[in-house]
Amino acid sequence: MKIAILGTGGVGGYFGGKLAMAGEDVTFVARGAHLEAIKTKGLVVESVEGSFTVFPAKATDDVKTIGKVDLVISTVKAHQIKDIAPQIPSLIHENTLVLPLQNGIMAVEELSKFIDKKHIISGLCRIMSEIKAPGVINHMGAHKGRATIIFGEIDNSKSERVVMLNEVFENAGFGSKIADNITEEIWKKFLPICVGSLLALTRTTFGELREVPETRSLMKKMFNEIFELSQKMHVGLEEDIVDKNIEAIDHFPYASSASIVKDILAGKPSELDYQNGSVIYFAKKYGVNVPVNEFIYTCLAPSELKAKNILKH
After folding, report:
1. pLDDT score of 311
2. DSSP string for residues in 244-278
């Protein structure tokens, strides 16, 4: 299978690397020193499940040079998908599959503005990984067991193509699951990641956030708003999902944080618009009040605009 990995960070580097090691024809899209290191030394993956090196590795910074592929896996950050989406049509033939693994709930909608929706299957991943150095991926594990891709047709049908893709992923040696309801699975991941913006706003760790009564209350109210929105959108999350997420956070390491916090505190563009911003977008569309999410988003919006050079500083 000919595969293009759009974004060779912790996610794309690991899953793309495993696919390449399994014999698939994988091209990695990367930039700068990371790209040069992959070209000259290969893609090195240091993994708790066994390290490996893809060498030689096919890599480029120009999507249009790749040609038509059978599978496009988009692993850029959520706020970058609108920039790379216009380049995807150059990769597509009649049967190409496009699998976005972005955080959030907007990927399919944004991709469908540039490519026919029939090519898109929806997905998410569970993995803890990052770029350790140019050309080197550090895979630390996953939140729940082994690194896994969960995916499915947008209409949840068990098509031949998702069954085929599941076989490809299983052969590559990482976790693979065809979701019974992919929208529900994406929302299960979406709800808890939205707390990252609250961590950034309050300058707290998970331990500090849950320990202070006022911030713990804000966290619960934020979750409840997202759950109410999901109900209005007929997503079908479990009634006790808010309590389950708070219980899970109560067991996180005290000093742990979320990836969005690093970006916001460093003054870099973040996924704010695709986390709490998405909550506000859909809340307006479906007539749901989300004051806590609005408060979090509004307080962080100026720094986000500065990070994107929209608001000069």
Report:
1. 78
2. HHHHHHTTS-TT---HHHHHHHTT---SGGGTHHH
Q: Is residue 140 a contact partner of residue 22, using CB atoms and an 8 Å limit?
A: no
Q: For residues 211 and 206, what is the distance between their CA atoms, to the nearest angstrom?
A: 8
Comparing CA positions, the residue from 10, 187, 221 lying closest to residue 103 is 187
Which two structure tokens, joined as six digits, stand for 107? 């990927």
Token pair 């760790």 is found at 205
Q: Is 37 in a helix, a strand, or coil?
A: helix
Per-position DSSP letters for 107-118, written without gaps between them = HHHHHTTTS-GG
Q: What is the architecture of the domain spanning 2-180?
A: 3-Layer(aba) Sandwich (3.40)
* Distance from C-alpha of 41 to C-alpha of 43, rounded to nearest angstrom: 7
Q: What is the pLDDT of residues 128-176, one digit of tens each?
A: 899 999 999 999 876 556 899 999 999 999 999 999 999 999 999 999 9
Per domain, the residue ranges of the chain are 2-180, 186-307
Q: What is the pLDDT of residue 313?
A: 56
Q: Which long-range contacts (CB under 8 A, 24 or more apart) does 215-221 make?
A: 218/292, 219/195, 219/246, 219/249, 220/246, 221/292
Mean predicted lDDT score pLDDT of the chain: 95
Among candidates 134, 106, 20, which has minimal Cα distance to 285? 106
d(CA 249, CA 301): 25
Say yes or no: do domains 2-180 and 186-307 share a fold.
Answer: no
Q: Percentage of residues in the chain with pLDDT exceeding 70?
A: 98
Angle at 153 between CA 100 and CA 147, to 5 degrees: 50
Q: Is 186-307 CATH 3.30.360.10?
A: no
Strand-strand pairing, 43-47 and 52-54: antiparallel
Provide Rg for the chain, Cα atoms: 19
Indicate the pLDDT class of residue 271, thresholds 50, 70 and 90.
very high
